[in-house]
Fold:
Amino acid sequence: MTATLVSALVIISRLDYGNAVLAGLPHSSTAPLQRVLNSVARLVCGLRPRDHVTEALTNLHWLLVTGRIELKLCVLVYKSLNGIAPSYIDDMIQPVSALQRQITLRSATTNDLFVPRTRLRFGECAFSIAAPLL
Structure:
């Protein structure tokens, strides 16, 4: 059982490594990662291949892959807003109130973040756009 748990935790840590770059990708790109997560949950809980894995994920307190990606982005935004993040992340996220040309907007009085415009669908995957949207 310990070998199963160790291998599962190694797989989970590798799955979470750098998943913030996967923000905004279509379901077809994140589905293979979700299948890996489902397989690990089946392995840890001793489920058969045809058993539903949703309850096992809930019992293990594991998020779906899209939820993990969103959580990672939100944590990075939180760290940036509280001055804990590295400077290169701070440079990508700006509050609306910090921008001179946006100071008269109603959103400048709230904690909204500036979302740069992009013309490309692939541009929405960029951290500087995906993070403020969340």
The mean pLDDT is 78. The chain has two domains: 2-69, 74-133. The radius of gyration is 19 Å. The helical segments are 2-16, 27-45, 54-59, 65-81, 87-92, 127-133.
